[in-house]
Amino acid sequence: MKKIAVLMAALCLSLGAFAHSGGTDKNGCHRDHKTGGYHCH
């Protein structure tokens, strides 16, 4: 049961890494072409 809980936690934490492909500029920002927005990390 503990292995399943650890696996689920790792999966949930890793999903944020695939939110977008990146491609940041020199300021660590990028444009979201779907929404037209611009944000920084």
TrEMBL record:
It comes from the Bacteria. NCBIfam families: YHYH_alt. Keywords: Signal. InterPro entries: YHYH_dom_bact. Residues 1-19 form the signal peptide. It comes from Variovorax gossypii. This is YHYH domain-containing protein. Residues 20-41 are annotated as: Disordered.
